[in-house]
Design goal:
Elements: H1 2-34, E1 79-82, E2 97-99, H2 102-123
Length: 130
């Protein structure tokens, strides 16, 4: 009977030692996988409630227009005033920019002066040569 009790006591000691080793190895495995020690977390329990669920989506990306147009001036020059901004809606024949016309005004004046000189040269009486 003493042998039986001694064997039972030895098995119990080995079982308790095995349990302690298993607990320490399992606990350190949890600590290694999460990076923090296994700690109890407080949890609040509430009864089920009915309510509205809002589906809110936040997205990132780029928008592209259905159609795009390249706006080009018929004449070259400096802009005096820009009437619309990028993204504004425009309609047909709407003025979108005003070009500085000082250079063109000077060219018109010069052309008029040259025309007057040409008319004066043609209308000048020619004297017969002696």
């Amino acid at each position: 009977m003493k042998k039986f009790l001694l064997s039972l006591l030895a098995i119990a000691v080995v079982a308790v030692a095995g349990w302690q080793v298993y607990k320490r190895v399992g606990g350190s495995a949890v600590e290694k996988s999460t990076g923090r020690p296994a700690v109890s977390v407080a949890v609040e329990v509430k009864p089920i409630e009915r309510g509205v669920i809002r589906d809110i989506g936040v997205f990132t990306g780029s928008l592209e227009a259905k159609s795009q147009f390249v706006v080009a001036s018929k004449v070259a020059g400096w802009l005096k005033k820009l009437v619309v901004n990028i993204g504004d809606e425009v309609s047909r024949n709407q003025v979108i920019a005003i070009v500085d016309d000082e250079e063109f005004t000077r060219q018109v004046e010069q052309s008029r002066a040259e025309l007057e000189v040409a008319k004066a040269a043609r209308l000048r009486p020619r004297w017969p040569e002696p």
